[in-house]
Design goal:
about 270 residues, mainly alpha, P1 Nuclease, three-stranded mixed β-sheet, endonuclease activity, hydrolase, endonuclease
């Protein structure tokens, strides 16, 4: 990506008042990384479900959940709370009745939609929707601010002023938007180059492999990073130094999301699964 395109991308991100999730690039990277790690059987089943989609691959369907939410159609409104969980306090003490009542949060949504996807008795359209939800929500679960604090709505209400190469005169945004967009887009790579780069890196250790509730483990992992990695900047100003400091963590989260999504889909889409 050349400098002018990068500045334009950053300007667009800066103008976004309330971010939805990883940027389009972030979600597409998760989908691309996952598809590269599917078994032949799971890949064939996924492609069969996606037949007829405008872009019939995991990267292509990865932003659908945000698109229907933006349109505010019936399913978009129903799924609005499925994109995140807010957990008070830096210790990330998750209380299901308080933080995810009736399973209406990202943890419950991943588990529920993965079950629909794995059920061959479900209508094809329901399984396709479940696939698209799972691809998106696994990505969301690895964005720390999607498991953020309720008092500022996962950083959406934590206002920032950015001064850097994308906005030399300063530009307002928020912490959630910084994590959704800037950290990845400011690398200046297109999707293919970025995916190749991430696949070539040593994979981060997966400490949640044996967890009974993997989406819960992934989400609490994200939540704990907010405090342990000091994601809230001092004051309300950031520069390119903040992006450079935290980009490796964002990339590691995308790597993990891709690998974990592949593992989930390999299980859900296995023959007889």
């Amino acid at each position: 990506m050349n400098r002018s395109l990068l500045v334009s991308a950053l300007a667009l991100a800066l103008a976004t008042p309330v971010a939805h999730a990883w940027s389009r690039q972030g979600h597409q990277l998760v989908g691309e990384l996952a598809e590269r790690q599917l078994t032949p059987e799971a890949l064939a089943e996924a492609r069969d479900l996606m037949e007829g989609e405008a872009d019939p691959n995991l990267a292509g369907v990865s932003t659908w959940a945000d698109e229907i939410r933006a349109e505010e159609n019936e399913l978009g409104k129903l799924s609005k709370r499925w994109h995140y969980v807010n957990i008070p306090g830096k210790h990330c003490d998750y209380a299901p009745a308080r933080d995810c009542p009736d399973g209406e949060c990202i943890i419950g949504a991943i588990n529920a939609q993965a079950a629909v996807l794995a059920d061959r008795g479900q209508p094809r359209q329901k399984r396709l929707e479940a696939l698209k939800f799972v691809v998106h929500f696994v990505g969301d679960a690895h964005q720390p601010m999607h498991a953020g604090y309720p008092h500022d709505r996962g950083g959406n209400d934590y206002q920032l002023n950015y001064r850097g190469k994308g906005a030399p005169d300063g530009q307002g945004t928020n912490l959630h938007g910084t994590w959704d967009y800037w950290l990845l887009q400011s690398a200046g790579l297109d999707n293919a180059a970025y995916a190749d780069r991430l696949m070539a890196l040593p994979p981060p250790a997966d400490t949640a492999t044996g967890a009974e509730n993997r989406p819960l483990a992934w989400t609490l992992e994200s939540c704990r990073l907010i405090h342990s990695q000091a994601l809230y900047p001092r004051g309300h100003r950031i520069t390119d130094a903040y992006l450079d400091q935290h980009r490796p963590l964002a990339e590691a989260r995308v790597q993990l999301a891709g690998a974990r999504l592949a593992a989930l889909l390999n299980q859900a889409l296995a023959p007889g699964g």
